[in-house]
Hints:
CATH architecture of the largest domain in chain A: Alpha-Beta Complex
Order of helices and strands of chain A: HEEHEEHEEHEEEEHEEEEEEEEEEEE
Protein name (chains A, B): Molybdopterin-dependent oxidoreductase
Domain Oxidoreductase molybdopterin-binding (chains A, B): 57-229
CATH superfamily of the largest domain in chain A: Oxidoreductase, molybdopterin-binding domain
Number of helices of chain A: 5
Strand order of the largest sheet of chain A: 14-15-22-21-17-18
Pfam family, one (chains A, B): Mo-co_dimer
Distance between the termini of chain A: 62 Å
Organism (chains A, B): Streptomyces sp. 900105245
Number of domains of chain A: 2
Domain Moybdenum cofactor oxidoreductase dimerisation (chains A, B): 274-368
Oligomer: homodimer
Helix content of chain A: under 10%
Number of strands of chain A: 22
Largest interface: A-B, 89 and 90 residues
Amino acid sequence: MGPRTADVSAPARLAGPEEGIGADELALATRNHGLPLEAMRYDVTPPGLHYVLTHYDIPYVPQAGAWRLTVDGRVSRPLDLSLADLLSFPQVTTRVTLECAGNGRALLTPRPVSQPWLVEAVGTADWTGVPLRLLLEEAGAAPDAVDVVFTGADHGVERGVEQDYRRALPLAVATGGDPEVLVATTMNGAPLPPQHGRPLRLIVPGWYGMAHVKWLRSVTVSDTSFDGFQQTVAYRLRQTVDDPGEPVTRIAPRALLVPPGFPDFMSRARMVRPGPVTLEGRAWSGQAPVAAVQVSTDGGVSWEPADLEPATPRNRWAWRSWRTAWLATPGDRDLAARAVDADGRVQPLGQRWNRGGFANNAVRWVRVVCADTVADGARPRS
Amino acid sequence: MGPRTADVSAPARLAGPEEGIGADELALATRNHGLPLEAMRYDVTPPGLHYVLTHYDIPYVPQAGAWRLTVDGRVSRPLDLSLADLLSFPQVTTRVTLECAGNGRALLTPRPVSQPWLVEAVGTADWTGVPLRLLLEEAGAAPDAVDVVFTGADHGVERGVEQDYRRALPLAVATGGDPEVLVATTMNGAPLPPQHGRPLRLIVPGWYGMAHVKWLRSVTVSDTSFDGFQQTVAYRLRQTVDDPGEPVTRIAPRALLVPPGFPDFMSRARMVRPGPVTLEGRAWSGQAPVAAVQVSTDGGVSWEPADLEPATPRNRWAWRSWRTAWLATPGDRDLAARAVDADGRVQPLGQRWNRGGFANNAVRWVRVVCADTVADGARPRS
């Protein structure tokens, strides 16, 4: 007997103590990419800078006009829709900050071996599409429905299971009005780029990225709980292999700094000049809205409130900017921001570990070196 | 005395035997990104999929209309140009395949510690701009000029040297007609995205990426050889630390496969079904044009010619597609393509090592698992 599908997959594992990033993690890191954090200066992330994570390959769709979306399962009127059909429904535009559920994974100890994000797996876009609830109304979803299952065109093997990427939402979330789930056809006013789901994707404001199924081909209403791989095996908060775990859902509160000053190429350490520095960044939450951002410039000894952009309907599901003044004096400084949400949740200083490395929102420190001379930089290292 | 600029930089080094990718290499890999190789199917790389390497931060340029480009040094009429001024010169569009000089670095043994590319640091775009030779004519470059120096707005520290990113070209290259160097303002018909040099960059068809200075602010004609960091310290082909080395210049011939079949999420191993498979990919060279592409499906025992897209003026500096038929039979297969250029250069099977990991064009093998069953994939790994 020849090779089997399972032969290309290894079980999930944790990195050993001191184990460097492996060839498999690197292969993911070179394909997928984060938001360079200096680009948090833009309210809406410019094309190509928004984070991207693709489980398998990016499907090749040279003829978007031929794409079909089906709505079927426990419905009274199954739908088979072209892009033109979708555009005949009312269109809604929502500004959404998307974050990968695995953001921060590579900073955990022990490190779950998977896509090795630091904290840059985030981005914000204006997504336009038809509210999913209108499609489900049109199709007549059955009152006994439990889950709505979304299937993408991306196909591959994961932990020995060959699959199309597939996730579900409870019917109440799929038909909810706040957040309103979209079947999106444009990103920042342009057709979706291939890596963001061309020509169609789901947008679930406030939820981690795994829910926003890209290259969407079918919506299936089900009267049973969906037990597919990405729902019951992946994307669970587990402490042990046998733990069934809780599902990963909404984005935990997080604030990040635009790294101040300028970097060293290799170490990425930051340099600033002595004097006044504006510290700025972004904060977001898919749970209760961000209520405050606090900044520490002394390694966590003290935390001071930053000026936070007011909440508006426009930024309900998107990040908000914050800023504060800092007087840099010579020495090594550890800076960080942390978000506090309206339910009083504060970003933790320590890690909240789980085997998948999901939904971790520990405070991220930025080491800044404030040099007391400006002239020595022009000379090569002696 | 407080910290100095040099304190944030460590000397260049090689990874030890079995040393995994480090935190510094990972920080670069999460910011910069390659072309997912399945996207080689597009003649012109869609926005956001083209490889990106930024030494420091991406400069923030909210008001591109205020940008100025100066042309000075050994010229009779120094220029100080707005974007509108640049657009009053004749505009040329050239399709160019850009590749990072460090592409393939992470596959070398020992591995130079830097941006850890596998082989995906490549992309193709249509760049539009004014030929540099017209600007140098307008300014009246002195006949005794040697180098033309290009300064970008990206600022940082590298190996202890604080610097704006700066590179030079010999006057004959800067004023040459084939390739014709461009000061580009558009990429694929749109303004340059921030990560590709908004609002201005240099395009030097056929040269590795380090020559294509982004966020271009000044062009300085010099009667001496430029000895800046990126010219005489970085981007040299050295065997030892003390070796002055040869400069990195034009892109060595390379062919790559669009990975066939579908991948495993974590291992990135490829699966195909038994039966006919079209193998396809791209080939390019900044030296003599690609004359042939050869494919091996048996780990290098034999090489067969592929069908290569004919050379045209349009693709002189861009990749060309190639394809060939393959009958997949059950088992593990090692596939590769290699380019042969018009001067008879063949991509090597073994590495051509140097301390920077530059200009390496060793043949890249793709392991493909052809499973003799299709049904087992639907079951979880037992």
